[in-house]
Structure formats: C-alpha cells, structure tokens
Amino acid sequence: MTRRIVTSLVAVVVLGSLLCAGPALGKGSLTKVEDEFEKAIRRVTPATVVCLPWGVEPKKIIGGSSGVIVSRKGLVLSDGDVGIYLDVPSGQQPKAEHRKWADLVEIRLPSLKGKGFQSFKAKVIKRDRDLDTTLMRIEKPPSGLKYLKAGNSDLLKVGDFAFAVGNSFGLAAEAPPTLTAGVVASLVAGTTKEEGAYRYIYTSAAVNPGVNGGPFVDIEGQLVGTISNVVPLVGTGKKQDDPELAYAYLGKVIPVQRLKHCYKDLPEFAELFPEPKSSSTRRRESAALATVFHHTARRAYKSVVSLEVKRKGQLSLAEPAGRGTVNIPRYLGPVSGVLVSEDGYVLTSLYNLANIATLVHGGRWRKPPANVKVAAGLAGITSITVHLPDARKVPAKVVGHHEGIGVALLKADLSGGGTTASGGLELLTPAKPSELRAGRFVLTIGNPFGVNRLDDPLLTVGMLSKQHADDTASPWASQWQTDAGITDANCGGAAVDLEGRLLGVLTLWSTTMHGRNSGIGFVVPWTQIEPVLGELKRGRTFRAPFFGITWKQLGNELTTVLATVLKDKAADKAGLKAGDEIVEIDGKAVATPNDVREVLRGRWSGDTLLLLIRRAGKEQQIKMVLGARE
Questions:
Q1: Of 537, 566, 585, which one is at a domain's C-terminal end?
Q2: Band of the pLDDT at 362, cuts 50, 70, 90?
Q3: Do 318 and 367 meet the contact criterion of CB atoms below 8 Å apart?
Q4: Where are the alpha helices (DSSP H) in 333-432?
Q5: Which of 464, 511, 468, 467 is nearest to 487 (CA)?
Q6: In whole angstroms, how large is the CA radius of gyration of the chain?
Q7: Is there a domain that residue 284 lies in?
C-alpha cells in the first residue's frame, strides 16, 4: 500500500518550481521517498506489540489493544483500556459494572518472519483512562529489545506524512502488525502550554479496532503519539460515530507531548523520554511532498466555508433491517461548503441538507422511504449560518438544488452588519477538465469548525480512482470516485489538485453501504456543476425528469418502444401511445433507454423536448414538456 501511495504521489508532481513551497524533488526522488518510508516502517514494526489481560479466558477479553515498546528495558505504552475484560456472573447480561482492568498484561511480540510470537508478562505502572494511555513494564525483557524513540509532536503540521501501526485483525498473534500510511489531517490546539501545542492529532491513515494504543510515527520513524480510537464498550452506550464529533471516522492520536506531561512525575520519565542527543533532522525528499500538501491546503482553505445547519429534527440514515429499517443518527455539527462567487453563493453537497443515501436490498436499488426524501429534509431546515474565512458570520438560505448530481446552492446574505457585497472573498480557480484523470492527486479541504475556525483545514489526501460511466444506473453516474477520506465533516468541501485548482465538490451517496473515510467517496466534477450553476442561481430545482412510460422488452434487451404510457404524465399529455418508438430527442438519435437517460441527464423538469417517433411505420414529431419524478 505504501509503495503504491508514494508512486502515485511522486508520479504526478513536479514540486520545487510548482508552488515555491518547499525543496524540489530531484533526480531519483521516487526511490528516495520510498526508501524514507521503508526506513520508518522498519523502525516501528518490531517495536509494535499486542496487549491482552494476563491469564484471562479468551472469551472474557473485550477487543484488546496494540502497544509500543519505548525503552530497551521494556517500558510499553498502550491505550487506557489495555487489559480490559468482562467478568459477568452466571446468568446475567453484560453491564458496565462487569468491566475490569487487569494490572498484569500479556505482551505479545509477533514474529516478523512468519507465524508465532514471544509472550512476556508486564505490570501496569500508571493508567490514565481519561487521557486514554497506560504505561507498563515487561518483567523480564529479553536482550536486544527493539524500541521507538520519542519525537516532538509540537513540530507536526497538517499535511505531514505519518504512519499508524497496530494489529487490526482481531489481535491475531500469528502475523506482524498492520501499517497504514496517511497524513496529519487536523491538529486540535492544546489547552495549556505545559501539555504541548496540540490536544489531539487526527490522521487520514486508516485506523481500525485493535490498533488502539499502537504507535503513531512521523517520517523520521519517531513516536509522535499513540492511537486512541476508542471501541464501543459493552454496557457503556458510547459509540465511535458520535453524531457531534467532527472527526468521527478519522484516526485519533494522543500527542507525545501530552504523554510526557502525563508521566512527568514518574521515576521512569527519563527512561521513557530521554533527552535527544541532537535536535537536527536530516533533509528528506518526502518533506517536499508534505510541504506542498500543507501550503496548497492552506490556500484552498480561504475559499471553503463552514455551514451551521439548524433543523426541526435530526436527520438519520435508514438502513434495511429485516422487513423494516434501522435509523442511524447523522452528524450534528458544522459541515463544509465552497464559495463560488464574490457575492456570497456557496455550493455544498445535498447530503449535508437532506438524506440522499440510496438504499440497497437484495442487490437492487430501492426508492428511499418517505422519511428520507429530499423535500422533507430541506423542509426541516430552520436556519443556515455561514462562517466565512474572514470570521464573519452571516445567514444563508438554499436557493436551488440538483438531485441528479447531488449538490445544493446557498446564498449568503452579505448585506448586513457592515459587510460589503464582495467583502474580499477568495474563489478557487477551476482546473481544466483534462486534469481530472485516474491516478491524479487530490486534496480534500473541509471546514467543520464553525465559529472556532482553525488555522488549517481538515485535510485528507488520495487519488482520483475512477470516473463512473455516464449511463450507469447509480446516482453517482459521471462522478469521480476517490480514496481520499470523506466524512460527514468535510463532505461539501473542495477537492483540489496540487496547485490548489478546484476539481469539484466532495459528496457522499450511500454511507450505509460505502461507509465514511472508507476509500469510497465521490467528487462532483466542476464540469457537471458549471453548466447548471446559472439555473441554480435562478432558484430552479432539478429533480430527475419523468416521461411516465415503461419500455418494451425484446428478448433480454429493452427497446425505445413504449410498452405503457401512464395516465396524466408527461408522455400521455404529449399524446404518446403504447407501441410508439422514440427515434430521436432534439435531433439526437436514441437506440436504447440508456441513450434516452443520457439525453435527459442535463434536462430540467419543465423543459420542452422535440421527439421524433415512429407510429405504425410512419415518423412524426411531437413536443413534450418534461414532468418531475415524484
């Protein structure tokens, strides 16, 4: 995975002269960057361990933890729930009070050459469950124990490369730990200087249950934090997808500077965090990539706003469950939008305002139930506040939306509070259509911070994976799929290239199927948005146009011959009859229903079409006014 990521990044970049944002990648840079990644990996892998409560029956263990060895004498860091297990009396249901934490922990050091592991007993020195950290010592550490040195988390910046390491496969002890690569996605400022610059670090590196407590390392291979993705615990009622958490579905990290503060009074502190022999760092080729990420993201951030949406009731995602549905609460915090004009027009994903998730059951697309219809979702909005990049806070309203491509247009009111019409708002320059190609780099820029705008955006990084076909029946037809992490918080934000040019707007479609930050997110390309922007500004709403017909089947293929014509719908009102064959629409020949759908893709309800039909062997023209799909 790591080599694929680096190859893709370097192949699309000519960095030094591109942005004047950092050192250039010279000859042989691809190999050098790969080498730097591999050196960091070689340092962290042998120091990553599996942690289980000592002597507890496997069926009583809750999840388990990863951990990292931090001294040659056997000090180990893990999360606050290391050693947790359930002790449930016979005949009772598991409850919160049945959770216990073992003071003796089994440290499993998996073999890096195949199956098998070494097992050691470790004793807990200090546990801080509020901070989600535990320090342990192996009782009889072996000689030559590999360990990680602590770096300085205060030196990190959004866009820096980083690695998350742990055992994400049910704490399997027969294989080496798993490593995922990503970037620093967001940095949450600390509350006191003594604890360090950052309270939390969030990363786009994939983090899964079982990786909790594992090491988070920088490109130097130094420990800059421990992973703190808390798994939902039996009897607690807590969930990882907290609807008020902007960073849900991203990896959460406790910075090493906060860990230093936590353990500063222990006798083991000097062993745990020895003074570095030298503060100098070597020049790394990968630093050029990270610098471009950082500076490009900051520039693009000037055009990305935060939207605070107030509603009568909370949105929910409906997921099939037996004969009914299960409603999953939606994220409640601020979402992202993109400025598209100096007079206050803002684009966002329709997903942020209503439920556009398409349900899948038995392999077939289903019409969403009434409670998730777009109209109902929009009607439930009581107010929208736009938090502008210059710290202004202004009201906004939805002026139009396009259900076909899944975007909505808002108009921010810039007239009050001493503001001006333009107000110095900065707009992104659209990329040329030719820049959207599979394998090209994409930065996703989100702003879920509301009034508490940070200096840096929420940033994730990836590639343009593929463009879906125009004639697919899926709602994401013609849109680009990306493996860059998209969540409820950055959905509606900007997808930009390495020069900060606008590729499109980020969106999610069926999160109950695809997930969030899963490697399946979508970019509505600017080439789809620009042609409809004028109509949206005029307050028009696009809902899939409707003929009110069914197609006749010939063998296994559908034809453009009408099998039925629904009463009082568009086709019936135009005079079409069962048995008519549609030959052309507005002068464009159509041979299949997919051809018809392609012609209609850019059309709005209320538009007039000129049809050439064949009836009883004779051709004739008929005008038809498109209706709206109900």
A1: 537
A2: very low
A3: no
A4: 374-379
A5: 511
A6: 28
A7: no
Residues 6+ apart with CB under 8 A from 245: 331, 333
Beta bridge partners of 502: 430, 496
Give backbone dihedrals phi and psi of 192, rounded to 5 degrees, phi first.
-135, 145
For residue 209, give the CATH number of its domain.
Answer: 2.40.10.120
Model pLDDT for residues 251-282, shown as the tens digit of each residue: 899 999 999 999 999 999 999 999 876 655 55
Q: Which residues pair with 623 in a beta bridge?
A: 610
The answer to whether the beta carbons of residues 212 and 166 sit under 8 Å apart is yes
Residue 4 has pLDDT above 50, yes or no: no
In 3D, which of 192, 69, 204 has the Cα closest to residue 138? 69
The answer to whether 439 and 11 are in contact (CB under 8 A) is yes
- Both 430 and 522 in one domain: the answer is yes
The span from the CA of 81 to the CA of 528, in Å, is 48
Q: Are residues 123 and 6 in the same domain?
A: yes
Q: Which domain holds residue 328?
A: 299-537
Q: Are residues 508 and 609 in the same domain?
A: no
Q: What is the DSSP letter of 429?
A: P
Share of the chain above pLDDT 90, in %: 42
The CA-based diameter of the chain, rounded to the nearest angstrom, is: 96
In a domain, 423, yes or no: yes
Check whether residue 164 and residue 213 sit in a common domain. yes
Q: What is the mean pLDDT of residues 279-295?
A: 74
Both tokens of residue 200?
């939390």
Q: Tens digits of per-residue pLDDT, 334-357?
A: 999 999 999 999 999 999 998 776
In residues, how long is the chain? 630
H-helix or E-strand spanning residue 523: strand 521-525
- Cα(257)–Cα(273) distance, integer angstroms: 10
DSSP calls for 280-334: -----THHHHHHHHHHHHHHHHTTEEEEEEEESS--EEEEEETTEEEEEEPP-S-
Tokens 């710290």 -> residue: 391
Give me the CATH number covering residue 560.
Answer: 2.30.42.10
- Asked whether 340 and 533 are in contact (CB, 8 A), the reply is yes
Cα–Cα distance list, 486 to 495, 501, 629 (Å): 10, 19, 29
Helix (H, G, I), strand (E, B) or coil at 273: coil
Closest by CA to 498, choosing from 26, 27, 7, 10, is 10
- Domain contains 238: no
Taking phi first (over 0 means left), then psi (-120 to 50 degrees means alpha), and beta for anything else, what does residue 294 get? alpha
Q: Record the pTM.
A: 0.81
